[in-house]
Amino acid sequence: IMKGVLCALLVVAFCGVSLGIWPQPHTVNMNGQKTIAVGKNSINIAATGSKILDAGGERYKNLFFPFPGSTSNLAQVSITYRITSLSENLQLFTPEDYSINMPDSNGNQYNIVITASTVFGALHALETLSQLIIYNDTTSSYTISNIPFSITDQPRFAWRGLLIDSSRHYLPISSIKRVIDAMSYSKFNTLHWHLIDAQSFPILSTSYPQLAKGAFSPRAVYNSTSVKDLISYAQYRGIRIVPEFDIPGHAASWHAGFPDLVTQCPGNLERNINNIPLNVANPQLFNILQTFLSEMSTLFTDQILHVGGDEIVDYCWTQNPQIQAWMRLNHISNGLQIKQYFENNLLNNIFPKLSSPKTPMVWEDLFDAGVGFSNASVIQEVWSHPTQLIKIVQAGFHAVMAAGFYLDQQIPNPSKTWYEWVDTWKNFYENEIVPAGLSVAEQQRILGGEAAMWGENVDGMNVDSRIWPRACGTAEKLWSRKEDTVSASAAVGRLISFRCSSLARRGIGAGPVASDYCYVGDN
Fold first, then answer.
1. DSSP secondary structure of 223-291
2. Using omega within 30 degrees of 0 as the cis cutoff, is the peptide bond preceding 148 cis?
3. Per mean pLDDT, which range of 14-23, 26-35, 447-456 is the poorest?
4. Could you count the other beta carbons within 10 Å of the beta carbon of residue 375?
5. H/E segment holding residue 324
């Protein structure tokens, strides 16, 4: 009972002043005293010549006003832009800063100026502005308060990611688009798409269409048209798509298209298909990988290509008779040397010949096992523990932190558990990404982090509620200043508001954080 009373008090107290912004901006000056009424027909958004930003303006004009509203005594508001670059090329390190300035007016005409380095920063500004237009479901009116105000904002990290897994369960395109929408509302910028794994191979290759036999069904396959559509959809919302093709482990799904390309594991190991790796003794392996990854490098436009490298079971290699003979022929004596052989071929021979140049990204497992990398540009993703992140950046590699951000775990932080499962968002919120004791140069090698929604128990029916609103804790951690993301208790009121106004009202199946009332329309 007391917990319910506390949550109710938090909502009342929070809504009594301002609904706030999620994620928290860098600098906010909202000390103005004026409130104006606005409506869909009283706001004009200037055109810029950027297809992405102009489409964003049209989209947000609808998001500003999700329900019919009062048309009486509305102020006229013009939104104009000052954009340094209208380039629509979205990559890692594309600037995303913005500012919003709304001065006072003696009349009924107001102007909001959005300043940004790029169109993608301006999209973030529109999202922030949308959270300042408050709907009153009693009077059916929309207002903007605290005029005059100004906001200056920029992300803490360049990589603010969310992993989805369409190999354990196929995710319909419509579900992925909802994920992308919610990511943009939360100011994530990177969709890590874990496309293939042991369970299924749902991507259609024109070079090797037989690989798609490893999909759950012919209907559970993404072709090049659907992939291109998703990439464009994401780009128009400021989201990069980084694909992952997990090799050489987790390779059972390759068997349907190329039976000889996978290793037969001895004994009971084959009962767990996650143990089955690619067959390094097959002389066609690297030719097939070269052709397949070259095709994928052209299809996916981001500069980064994730090639897995996690959870490789050496025993499947070292106890397989065919691979044992190959090991003797190549003077290889253990599993680590096989890993090294594979990664040398993949990173030093295949990647330089890709049709579209890519920066490789892998899971930390290879580094942990002692695999050497001749190319320091290989990005390492850390899933186990912050101590591994320290070792990786101290070794000179860039890294992305996923440890502590696993959405599929019931207890993301064993030292802090919750009665309510949804409260694990607090674990993510208080999971600091930069460990203590690193030099400035080492800290700069931490690109950011990402929430991971592994798909063993997730499909299109529940993907929304499994991700949202819990991933919002990670979103603010990655965007806002470190000193502003220390206490989840201080953030809960804003998250309650954001879950309702920016997720649920926009069709995202995000469950409540605490007891509240969220009006989402009469239908």
1. -HHHHHHHHHHHHTTT-EEEEEEEESSS-GGGGGT-GGGB----GGGGGSGGGPPB-TT-TTHHHHHHH
2. yes
3. 14-23
4. 12
5. helix 321-329
Residue whose C-alpha is closest to residue 454's, from 206, 210, 216, 169: 169
**Averaged pLDDT of the chain:** 94
CB 443 within 8 A of CB 434: yes
Which amino acid, one-letter code, is at 262?
V
**CA pair distance 360, 282, nearest whole angstrom:** 23
* First CA to last CA distance, the chain: 31
Q: Is the dihedral of CA 215, 220, 226, 230 positive or negative?
A: negative
CA distances from 94 to 97, 179, 202, 303, 421 (A): 10, 21, 30, 12, 35
Query: Cis (ω within 30 of 0) for the bond into 259?
Result: no
The distance from CA 400 to its chain's CA centroid, rounded to whole angstroms, is 12
pTM given for the model: 0.95
Quick one: pLDDT at residue 269?
Answer: 64
Sequence-distant (6+) residues with CB within 8 A of 287 are: none
> Contact 474/427 with Cβ under 8 angstroms?
no
Using CA atoms, how far residue 321 sits from 29, 250, 258, 336, in Å, is: 69, 20, 19, 18
Q: Which of 311, 364, 430, 432 is catalytic?
A: 311
Beta partners for residue 219, in sequence order: none
Q: Which pLDDT score, from 0 to 100, does residue 516 have?
A: 94
Which residues are CB-neighbours of 322 under 8 A, at least 6 positions away?
Answer: 279, 281
Cα–Cα distance for residue pair 103/173, rounded to 1 Å: 42
Query: Cα dihedral sign for 59, 84, 23, 390?
Result: positive
- Report the run of H or E that residue 102 belongs to, with start and end: strand 98-102
pLDDT band at 12 (very low <50, low <70, confident <90, very high): very low
Q: How far apart are CA 477 and CA 458, in angstroms?
A: 24
> What is the separation of C-alpha 497 from the centre of its chain, rounded to a whole number of angstroms?
21
Contact criterion met (CB below 8 Å) for 295 and 329? no
d(CA 503, CA 514): 15
- pLDDT band, very low/low/confident/very high, at 6 (cuts 50, 70, 90): very low
Is 311 marked active-site? yes
Q: Which single residue is written with the structure tokens 């990398």?
A: 373
**Strands ordered across the beta sheet of 43-45:** 27-29, 149-153, 98-102, 109-116, 76-83, 43-45
Q: How far apart are CA 410 and CA 422, in angstroms?
A: 10
Q: Token digits for 393?
A: 């950046």
